[in-house]
Design a protein that fits this description.
Helix content: 10-25%
Largest sheet: 8 strands, parallel, barrel
Shape: globular
Number of strands: 56
Distance between the termini: 78 Å
Strand content: 35-45%
Structural class: mainly beta
């Protein structure tokens, strides 16, 4: 059995004399470090503008913006979103009391490369769009006049990861920008974007723990300095536990390392997701002569230990522990990645409320607010750099990957929540699709292995106390090439039952991997299915994007994760519906596998996870918030029976509609499913249960529109009968709120299609916001018939010609089938009268573009029969709607 542990090494210490801070004058307790954002009052221009380097340049016509900022809100509407350069300008007027101090500029993140200029002179540059950079700008500043800060940002460079990925590479300065002023003696602020102090807990047990603090002190003055370095350790309740000091002599211009070890911390309160106890470590520099504070830095640490076992999973503080996790991208429609700190914190609170104890921060380092909340809320974390899909043969790419890895580790080194560092995701996905032959593939594999080994070595050099990981897509090639042997643990991104196969392939794949590679501790690093709130069905199928299939899929996957002991845990893909500009599908530009919508409204399935993961509070949720506008075909005035699901961690649930009990159901897999009679237009659903002897209730009012099975003068009044032709799904338009009901075959006395076969596409449909309605069709149909009384009718036909070969992304994993190239034209008759002699939707509106045609029909028979007669290719229909006009 292979076991990876957070190793604790014995160290000898000398306990320093405790310093009583009360002997110092109160005025000396004020730290001399000053930190402030410069997020306001920026000017921005998209595109190149080297003339902006001139301090006299007039930027009056530039856009006024505040940070955080991205120029890629176009990614929500365009595949080919802007990738290039953007320029930022801002005046800086420095306070006079900063004279004599060292001034630093810190950018928390700008994607994906920056060049920084002050007063026309280049200060420095940074590569990497997801880590911070800090520059000493003191030599370039003026205290007598305003300073012009100019930053050129580039999100197009192909030597900086990521170069490929199923998400949008937003450009801009999209996190905070800071000015930091410190005295000439200070902690090193230019250590790969970190603040230069690193804390470890080399030995932890329930009885005692030790702390190790490492860092650098700089003396930028022209004379030597006598300093006192003091470390103060505070208990989570705020009381001072221990203080250690040491005296340091620094020569002019000298940088000195320091290492301090503090022991013992007796009976430490252990950090866990349930009890995230944090100890504050205050590190202070004093001037020995004046006893004043020169510089000060505060961090939090937690005492915990962990290890992974290939047969038994993950252990925290010596106890088995299932990692119940979520992956998270950082954008929010429509503002992109320009999120505020409180928006990041909101996301973490939503995850914690759901019951998650683990997050895969994917696929790149994220805002400090995320890591801070991981520590405070108790969320174990896997953080990674964005080396994705393929390793290019591009000069400098490997160096930039290494730099990003070092920066990520140093910047977030002190956070006890982080247990895993990662550096590659699905690295063979595009590789295997781009290079088909062995001769083409071999050098790319060798290049990939070389980079992986290089990054693994860097990771261990930077931090031997945490675990390394890569995430693989569901291919055994990672084992065959040796990639799976490099990291401590492996992550599998598995989508059986979504991109292909059946959901039961999930547990079969895991069992096969464990059988063939029993020494590999594993995490399911991705799994998920897309859902679109507009789509609902009584017969869910893979890739129909119905809310119901996502629920069915996840209700299968989660018990497998929970009940398989050798699987350490899983991280659902994704927490949010996030921006992926290259995607089409039902919601173009969006990957909609989230448990919450882009606006952070939880989907119903969020409460399935909450019911499964929260045993400390009652969970009772009628899972119809995603389906509040219901419809169904009604026979002869009888109620329409529709399923209503309730997610709960209570043992039994009773459901009522308009005060009448539908019955009681035992919950199985945290689910109770009822068949409910719908008849009234706005019924009220209520669920009742008991949790630990106390009553729990949930209530919800829904809308219901019955669609008559048989049409007559009474029920046609005010009815718009809209049919989602070629689909088994209800579709409700966001704009009109009209529900298009699933297709059905014609039976005498009713309505439905005549012949044809279902077909569809995942390609984006233009000229409409109701994309899914036009992505399915019935191909080769003979016609559509409605048995209706005489009268004047409006008949609307919907078309989109999908029969042209169209490129698909690698991330569909073969799900999208290439269509044949053809032009389709057909004659259309209504009750025998020709209304279109040779309609060609592709000629009329173009391929993959919506076309709607309306006809007014004076019907003097007992039916409306729309017939299609192919002229070339095949006839097809995407949707049909009829409305009685008198």
């Amino acid at each position: 059995m292979r076991i990876f542990k957070h190793i604790h090494k014995p160290v000898c210490w000398t306990i320093a004399t405790i310093i009583i801070f009360s002997i110092l004058a109160p005025s000396s307790l004020y730290a001399q470090r000053e930190i402030q954002t410069i997020n306001d009052s920026w000017k921005f221009r998209k595109g190149e503008c080297t003339a902006a380097l001139d301090s006299t340049f007039k930027d009056d016509e530039w856009e006024d913006i505040h940070l955080p900022h991205t120029w890629n809100t176009d990614a929500y509407t365009e595949k080919d979103y802007y990738r290039g350069t953007g320029w930022y300008r801002r005046q800086i007027i420095l306070p006079q009391d900063w004279i004599g101090k060292q001034v630093f500029l810190k950018l928390d993140a700008a994607s994906k490369a920056t060049c920084i200029y002050i007063n026309g002179k280049k200060v420095g540059e940074h590569t990497g769009g997801y880590t911070a950079s800090t520059l000493n700008i003191t030599p370039f500043l003026s205290f007598n006049s305003p300073n012009m800060l100019v930053i050129r940002v580039d999100n197009a460079r192909m030597d900086i990861p990521p170069i490929s990925g199923d998400f949008t590479f937003f450009g801009g300065i999209y996190r905070d920008a800071w000015l930091i002023a410190v005295p000439s003696q200070h902690f090193n602020l230019t250590n790969h974007g970190s603040d230069g102090i690193f804390i470890t807990t080399p030995r932890v047990s329930e009885q005692q723990a030790t702390l190790s603090i490492h860092g650098e002190i700089k003396n930028d003055a022209r004379e030597k300095a006598a300093l006192e370095l003091v470390h103060s350790i505070y208990h989570p309740d705020g009381t001072l536990l221990q203080t250690q000091k040491q005296f340091i002599q620094l020569k002019a211009g000298e940088t000195r390392n320091f290492d301090s070890n503090i022991s013992p911390i007796l009976q430490p309160l252990l950090w866990t997701p349930e009890t995230p106890y944090l100890y504050r470590v205050e590190t202070t520099l004093f001037n020995c002569k004046t006893k004043s504070i020169v510089d000060q830095s505060n961090h939090h640490t937690g005492f915990r230990w962990f290890h992974f076992e290939s047969n038994k999973g993950f252990y925290l503080n010596g106890k088995p522990y299932k990692l119940r996790g979520i992956c998270r991208h950082q954008d929010q429609k429509p503002i992109g990645v320009a999120l505020t700190d409180e928006m990041h914190r909101r996301d973490m609170k939503l995850m914690k409320e759901m019951g998650a104890n683990f997050i895969r921060i994917s696929h790149y380092p994220q805002d400090d607010a995320i890591i801070e909340m991981c520590d405070k809320l108790g969320m174990l974390a896997w953080e990674e750099i964005p080396v994705i899909d393929i390793v290019p043969d591009t000069p400098g790419y490997g160096d930039n990957c290494e730099r990003s890895l070092r920066e990520m580790i140093r910047q977030h080194y002190n956070h006890p929540s982080i247990i895993i560092w990662g550096y590659m995701n699905e690295i063979l996905l595009v590789t295997q699709r781009k290079y088909k032959t062995e001769n083409e593939l071999k050098p790319v594999i060798e290049r990939t292995l070389a980079l992986a080994n290089r990054l693994e070595q860097v990771l261990k050099e930077e931090d031997s106390t945490r675990i390394s990981a890569m995430a693989f897509h569901g291919s055994n090639s990672y084992n065959e090439t040796g990639l799976s042997q490099i990291t401590d643990i492996v992550g599998w991104n598995l989508y059986q039952g979504w991109y292909g196969g059946d959901v039961t392939g999930f547990e079969k794949f895991l069992a096969e991997q464990h059988r063939n590679y029993p020494a590999h501790p594993m995490i399911v690093s991705e799994y998920g299915a897309g859902s679109d709130r507009r789509l609902h069905t009584l017969a869910p199928r893979a890739f129909d994007f119905s809310i119901e299939y996502q629920q069915k899929y996840l209700e299968h996957y989660l018990p497998v994760l929970e009940e398989t002991p050798y699987v350490c845990g899983g991280t659902h893909w994704n927490f949010i519906d996030f921006s992926s500009a290259l995607r089409d599908e039902s919601m173009p530009r969006i990957n909609n596998k989230g448990l919450v919508y882009a606006d952070r409204t939880p989907k119903d399935v969020y409460y399935y996870y909450k019911a499964a993961w929260r045993s400390d509070i009652p969970v009772l949720h009628i899972a119809s918030r995603d389906w509040t506008r219901r419809s169904g075909v009604q026979q002869e005035g009888k109620p329409v029976m529709l399923p209503v699901k309730v997610y709960s961690n209570c043992p039994e649930v009773e459901l009522f509609i308009d005060g009448t009990s539908v019955g009681k159901k035992k919950t199985e897999n945290f689910t109770a499913l009822f068949e409910v009679p719908f008849l009234r237009k706005e019924p009220f659903l209520s669920a009742h249960a008991t949790y630990q002897g106390k009553p729990v209730t949930d209530g919800l009012r829904v809308g219901f529109t019955p669609i008559p099975d048989r049409l007559d003068k009474t029920n046609l009044n005010g009815l718009e009968l809209a049919v989602n032709v070629g689909s088994h799904c209800f579709f409700t338009s966001d704009e009109s709120h009209l529900t298009w009901v699933p297709d059905q075959p014609y039976t005498p006395g009713s309505w439905g299609h005549l012949g044809g076969k279902e077909a569809g596409t995942q390609t984006e449909i233009g000229l409409t916001t109701d994309g899914p309605l036009f992505q399915t069709l019935r191909n080769g149909l003979e016609g559509y018939r409605f048995d209706v009384p005489q009268g004047v009718y409006e008949v609307e036909l919907l078309f989109t010609d999908i029969y042209r070969r169209n490129s698909s992304t690698a991330y569909l994993l073969g799900r999208e089938r290439q269509q044949e190239n053809r032009e389709n034209a057909f004659r259309i008759t209504i009750n025998g009268k020709t209304v279109e002699d040779a309609l060609s939707p592709c000629r009329t509106s173009g391929y993959f573009r919506a076309l709607r045609k309306k006809y007014i029909v004076d019907n003097d028979t007992d039916h409306l029969e729309i017939k299609f007669h192919a002229r070339s290719g095949n006839s097809f229909l995407n949707g049909i709607k009829i409305r009685h006009r008198n």
